[in-house]
């Protein structure tokens, strides 16, 4: 074994000694995903929340630190924008940080069109030691399907009620007319 | 004269009505079922029947986020009324069922009873404010929700109301072992060097493969070990260095390790295996992702 190899062995041995085993345990909860698309109609704007969590179980396995989370667009920024910025500080044990995505479907979109939105959510890890430090990331991806606007019937007077009222008014007018004629 | 005519017309109308009523009464009256015996004394009793309660869900989380690695309390409120009075509602019969997938056949259920609820009464309405415990690995998708309550009648009557809710897709992983990755003692040109596997614990309800974004490892002098010299595989692949299920990593590119299978469930995890072919022309130094311009690798789902 030559001197060069001995040096490699020594350096790797040192790096293993300073290895640490904690990794940030942040997670993301998504209301929409591939099998559960967001449905919107042309011209509609909607805000969608993605919930960031950082070890709400308070498990000892977690790196008990604040997570610095970075959110970036991979696809879909033609219809969506992050309203509260690309970086988030998620306190350890919390689950109340939200990434708000504002999605706007153009008026010119047609029913049946589909857009794909893909976010990359990651947190750099500050672990040391070893040869390869590992961070954790999540792919948040969901389709936005363009659908027809749902016309919800406003609560109020129904057609039947209107017809009945009109008939009653006509009858009342008829009776009034008859009474006036009778007086003469 | 006109009055007489009007009176006559009224009499005709009245008589016509009487005749028609008599005709229909004769034609349709069930004489065979009525005992027309002479008058006699009889006891008359009226049985007031038990009325079923009515139940209505008044509040339900439309989207349940779950909590990674732990339980989540999903809130549901419902009201019950009973024509016989709210005191006749049997609290011990309260049942709340969350079932997946919506429409069935169900493969997963979370249930609750009165012990998960805080009941209160206002006037003739009894309100149940309930929290159902959901697990972090409960399936993402639409769940049927059914609440029911019975009354305390001799033959209890039960009413129910139904709704649906969506459980979010929760992605949460924790690297519990094998991080950072270390390959131990290596020599230039040494092939098929393996490291201790990295344990990826699933703290969410995602199921599927795991992706890796790799970068070349650098030493301070600028030499590197390219990302393409590393292979990765899931626990099902016996030979991470040359098996059919091994995946060669690509520089700065998120690559799916096809042989990985991250399942969901209590304590579910996947062991990722790593293999390195050390370049033969390597200089003697410490190689790491922490040395610029290298970057930390990312394990993603």
Summarize it.
The complex is a heterodimer of chains A (184) and B (301). With 184 residues, chain A is α+β, with helices and mostly antiparallel strands.
Q: Secondary-structure map with pairings?
A:
The complex is a heterodimer of chains A (184) and B (301).
Chain A: H1 3-17, E1 26-30, E2 38-40, E3 45-54, E4 67-75, E5 80-82, E6 87-90, E7 97-104, E8 114-123, E9 134-146, H2 159-183
Parallel strand pairs in A: 2-9
Antiparallel strand pairs in A: 1-3, 3-7, 4-6, 4-8, 5-7, 8-9
Chain B: H1 2-28, E1 54-60, E2 63-64, E3 71-81, E4 89-100, E5 108-112, E6 117-122, E7 125-135, E8 141-151, E9 158-167, E10 169-177, E11 193-194, E12 198-202, E13 208-213, E14 217-218, E15 224-225, E16 230-233, E17 247-248, E18 254-262, E19 269-276, E20 297-300
Low-confidence parts of chain A? 5-20
- The CATH superfamily of the largest domain in chain A appears as Immunoglobulins
**pLDDT averaged residue by residue of chain A:** 84
- In percent, how much strand structure appears in the residues of chain A? 35-45%
The first-level CATH class name of the largest domain in chain B? Mainly Beta
What does this structure look like?
The complex is a heterodimer of chains A (184) and B (301). Chain A has 2 domains: 3-152, Immunoglobulins (Immunoglobulin-like), CATH 2.60.40; 155-184. Chain A is elongated and about 110 Å long. Chain A has 184 residues and is α+β, with helices and mostly antiparallel strands. Chain A has helices at 3-17, 159-183; strands spanning 26-30, 38-40, 45-54, 67-75, 80-82, 87-90, 97-104, 114-123, 134-146. Chain A contains 2 helices and 9 strands, in the order αβββββββββα. Helices cover 22% and strands 35% of the residues of chain A. Chain B has 301 residues and is mainly beta. Chain B has one helix spanning 2-28, and strands at residues 54-60, 63-64, 71-81, 89-100, 108-112, 117-122, 125-135, 141-151, 158-167, 169-177, 193-194, 198-202, 208-213, 217-218, 224-225, 230-233, 247-248, 254-262, 269-276, 297-300. The longest helix of chain B has 27 residues, at 2-28. Chain B is rod-shaped. Chain B starts with a helix and ends with a strand. Classes of the chains: A alpha+beta (184), B mainly beta (301). At the A-B interface, helix 1, strand 1 and strand 9 of A face strand 10 and strand 20 of B. Strand 1 of chain A pairs antiparallel with strand 10 of chain B, so a sheet runs across the interface.
């Amino acid at each position: 074994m030559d001197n060069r190899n001995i040096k490699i062995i020594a350096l790797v041995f040192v790096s293993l000694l300073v290895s640490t085993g904690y990794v940030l345990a942040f997670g993301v909860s998504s209301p929409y995903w591939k099998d559960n698309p967001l449905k919107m109609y042309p011209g509609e704007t909607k805000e969608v929340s993605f919930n960031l969590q950082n070890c709400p179980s308070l498990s000892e396995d977690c790196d008990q630190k604040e997570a610095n989370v970075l959110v970036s667009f991979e696809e879909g920024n033609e219809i969506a924008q992050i309203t509260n910025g690309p970086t988030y500080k998620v306190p350890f044990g919390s689950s109340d940080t939200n990434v708000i995505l504002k999605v706007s479907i153009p008026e010119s979109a047609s029913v049946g069109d589909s857009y794909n939105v893909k976010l990359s959510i990651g947190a750099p890890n500050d672990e040391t030691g070893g040869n390869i430090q590992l961070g954790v990331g999540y792919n948040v991806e969901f389709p936005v399907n363009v659908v027809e606007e749902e016309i919800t019937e406003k609560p109020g007077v129904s057609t039947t009620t209107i017809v009945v009222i009109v008939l009653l008014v006509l009858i009342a007018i008829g009776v009034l007319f008859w009474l006036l004629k009778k007086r003469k | 004269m006109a009055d007489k005519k009007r009176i006559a017309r009224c009499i005709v109308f009245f008589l016509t009505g009487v005749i028609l009523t008599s005709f229909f009464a004769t034609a349709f009256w069930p004489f065979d079922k009525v005992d027309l015996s002479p008058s006699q004394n009889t006891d008359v009793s009226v049985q007031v029947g038990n009325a079923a309660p009515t139940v209505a869900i008044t509040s339900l989380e439309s989207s349940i986020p779950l909590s990674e690695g732990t339980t989540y309390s999903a809130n549901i409120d419902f009201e019950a009324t009973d024509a016989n009075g709210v005191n006749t509602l049997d609290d011990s019969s309260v049942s709340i069922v969350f079932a997946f997938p919506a429409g069935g056949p169900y493969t997963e259920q979370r249930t609750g009873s009165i012990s998960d609820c805080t009941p209160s009464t206002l006037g003739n309405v009894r309100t149940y404010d309930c929290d159902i415990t959901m697990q972090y690995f409960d399936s993402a998708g639409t769940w049927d929700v059914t609440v029911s309550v019975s009354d305390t009648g001799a033959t209890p009557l039960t009413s129910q109301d139904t709704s649906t809710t969506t459980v979010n897709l929760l992605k949460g992983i924790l690297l519990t072992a094998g991080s950072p990755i270390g390959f131990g003692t290596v020599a230039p040109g040494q092939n098929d060097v393996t490291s201790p596997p990295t344990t990826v614990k699933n703290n969410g309800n995602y199921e599927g493969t795991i992706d890796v974004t790799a970068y070349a490892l650098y030493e301070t002098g600028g030499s590197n070990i390219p990302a393409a010299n590393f292979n990765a595989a899931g626990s099902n692949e016996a030979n991470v260095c040359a098996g059919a299920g091994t995946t060669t990593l690509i520089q700065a590119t998120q690559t799916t390790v096809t042989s990985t299978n991250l399942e969901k469930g209590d304590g579910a995890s996947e062991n990722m295996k790593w293999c390195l072919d050390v370049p033969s022309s390597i200089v003697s130094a410490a190689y790491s992702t922490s040395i610029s311009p290298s970057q930390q690798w990312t394990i993603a789902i």
